[in-house]
Amino acid sequence: MTGNLYHLLASRFPRDSSQTAMEVPGGTTLTYRDLDELSSAYTGVLKHADVQPGDRVAVRLHKSPEAVALYLACLRAGAIYLPMNPAYTEAEVAYLLEDAGPRVFVCDPGEEGNLGALAAQKGCAFVLTLDQVGNGSLVEQSGKVEPAKEIAERGAEDIAAILYTSGTTGKPKGAMLSHGNLASNGLTLHKAWGFVPGDVLLHALPIFHVHGLFIATHCALLNGSKMIFLPSFDAETVVGLLQSASVFMGVPTYYTRLLANERFGRDVAGHMRLFVSGSAPLMEDTFWEFERRTGLRILERYGMTETGMNTSNPYEGERIPGSVGPPLPGVEVRVRSEAGDLLSDGEIGVLEVRGPNVFKGYWRNPEKTAEEFQDDGFFVTGDLSRIEPNGYVSIVGRSKDLIISGGLNVYPKEIETALLELDGISDAAVFGIPHTDFGEAVMAAVIADTGKTEADIKGALKGSLANFKMPKKVLFLDEIPRNTMGKVQKNKLRETYKDYFS
Q1: Taking the CA of residue 77 as centre, how many other CA atoms within 13 Å lie in the half-sphere pointing to its CB?
Q2: Helices and strands (DSSP H and E) totals, the chain
Q3: What is the pTM for the complete model shown?
Q4: Which residues contact 277 (CB under 8 A, 6 or more apart)?
Q5: Is 266 helix (H, G, I), strand (E, B) or coil?
Q6: Residue 400, pLDDT above cutoff 80
Q7: If 0-12 CB within 10 Å is exposed, 13-18 middle and 19+ buried, where does residue 315 land?
Q8: What CA–CA distance (Å, rounded) separates 380 from 350?
Q9: Which of 131, 297, 337, 356 has the fewest CB atoms within 10 Å distance of its CB?
Q10: 3-state SS of 325-343?
Q11: Domain layout of the chain by residue ranges
């Protein structure tokens, strides 16, 4: 796979470029011609800012068709696209800006005062703005400079995007995804999930991570499909629009909320071709209740920020609840014990993957990159898994204590560090427990001075943690369980409080 990813995407746009690419109900509609021209205009702005191939463009934007056009402009310019969750605090944004060293930072006009100054302080040469309805200095400047229709030469190994993912240390790492990584995974999924002419994707996912930006959007663009582009997920809105779509992708939380809607059933969903779930484990009860209500089975798959999609239940074939299916074509999987021994079918160990979808390493962190790869090129996922005799993979746990709440990654160490920086807290442990809506809820156990309240702690954390990382509940304990080596026994905490939200 060679060449700029934009070449591949554009080659799949419909011949009739007046066909709709993205439609925001009650808002913007972009045709494929509009999308190409808008991305060309934004590329002109990047060129005017002297963005060179390999330069980083960091964005902290709310979801919009114009934000997708900016992503495509970065591809066209050969720049490296760096999306940030708009829920990130200034402290979180500051770290990413300092680590990535972007030339351009794009944010909402209402945040230009604080974040623009922060970006300038961190060495950004240019700050641009773009809001959710397509206004801002990016748009204004695009009307004053020449559109850049040329597409930068890029090879398969050149980096197209950096997405930051935290680790057990709590220090975010930038996963470098190449043009070849994204192209191969997009083409594989487009074929594996049976995309056909006329498909319409109901797009309710955020676009700051792999699921919404690459998996959903790339599949639609590679198919020349229309996307009904929702600013965010709302169950009532989705139920009302399903009859206009054929494909929907979501996190398990979306499906539990759809099932909680009385209108959701065969009448509104029975004609749909495909429902895909990922980013967190789908509960078997949700799988079976969904089939009972709609007559359809959700297709569950497994991926990571560092790899895109690795495995998928089949489009045609048995979709098994509790399984994420066999490896996708071109992807190899295996399971090793903690001692490094290859394990047989059915044995639980750490899953490793290898394929053209696997990222090139962590940005400016060769030591961590070397740590996470085996000598033969397999990436160590950290997920505890087993491979069944039929080749289907089951994810049974996460060796790195990752919590996935509402489809978003939450890393306990980061929250524990923030808790221990607060006055009056001498010890803390953060863990995930089952939650019917979010999949997992963040729970914090602390040893604190007398008089400390949950409201005190949550209020003190507010400036340093995004809302989705905030503990749903703070427990005050006399002692946090530890083993003889001093390691917190989170398995005991999870077991003790597993029914707290049930």
Answers
A1: 32
A2: 17, 23
A3: 0.86
A4: 249, 250, 251, 252, 254, 255, 298, 299, 300, 301
A5: helix
A6: no
A7: middle
A8: 7
A9: 337
A10: CCECCCCEEEEECCCCCEC
A11: 5-19+31-178, 233-398, 403-497
CATH code for the part of the protein at 233-398: 3.40.50.12780
Domain 403-497: CATH superfamily, name plus number: ANL, C-terminal domain (3.30.300.30)
Please report the pLDDT score of residue 168 as a whole number.
Answer: 44
Angle between helical axes of 412-420 and 454-461 (0-180°, round to 10): 110
Q: What's phi and psi for 80, nearest 5 deg? A: -100, 120
Four-residue CA torsion sign, 41, 43, 44, 46? positive
Helix (H) or strand (E) run with residue 385 in it: strand 379-387
- Equal fold, 5-19+31-178 vs 233-398: yes
Question: Degrees (nearest 5) of the Cα angle 347, 373, 346?
Answer: 10
CA distance 374 to 365: 16
Dist. CA 259–CA 296, nearest whole Å: 13
At 185, the amino acid letter reads N
* Whether the predicted pLDDT of 485 surpasses 50: no
Query: Which residue in this structure is represented by tokens 């002297």?
Result: 50
Q: How many other CB atoms are found less than 10 A from the CB of residue 390? A: 11
- End-to-end Cα, the chain, rounded Å: 48
Locate 174 and state its tokens.
């930038």
CA atoms within 13 A on the CB side of 316: 4
